[in-house]
Prior knowledge:
It comes from Streptomyces virginiae (Streptomyces cinnamonensis). The protein is α/β, with parallel strands linked by helices. The protein contains eight helices and eleven strands. A hairpin with a 2-residue loop joins strand 10 and strand 11.
Amino acid sequence: MSGTRTVLLVLTSHDQLGSTGRSTGFYLPEAAHPWKVLSEAGFRVDLASPAGGRPPMDGADLTDPVQQAFLDDPEMARKLDATLSVQDVDAADYGAIVYVGGHGTMWDFPGDRNLAGIARDIYEAGGAVAAVCHGPAGLVNITLSDGSYLVAGKNVAGFTNSEEAAAGLTDVVPFLLQSTLEERGAKHIGAADWEPNVVVDGRLVTGQNPASATGVGEALVKVLGDGS
Length: 228
């Protein structure tokens, strides 16, 4: 396990929900809740995005004290205003990477080679890879040094086809996350719509939906702690 106590949260830079005219972005609770768990466990948290700078935000509920605390925290506010560009990130600085969800990830995470390379390097150095909700869109094209897909043969969770249909976005998103994970050889383990569901397979931690965000953080702390 990598010795660093720093975790990289990656947020989407994509702000358009297909051709609907609606905006999207990273889903705030899926960043805030893992951040709270990780920071309380003593981890430093950095923020990055494909384009760098301030990313578009979606799903904010400021009646949730955790989301409000994330936005009010001076260090996180500074980092959110100027997220690192993934092309400038050194994977060796991090013991884990977390792909935060939000529908925007479906457009800019899968094809970003720099982002995939960061996760591969962290994983192959003994670190952990985590993702929640639509965040696993960043996992579908990660290949390891032997050419195999990172998710091949592994148990994973992610936003289900059923949840995408319930959201009315099956025909809007560029691909279905559950189906594509399965095409890459992953064993997708789904729960009922909107119910918490966290799946851990070695150093790969995935969560199905927003309700799984805290659980992803908790599971990641356990994975990282086990190797310290």
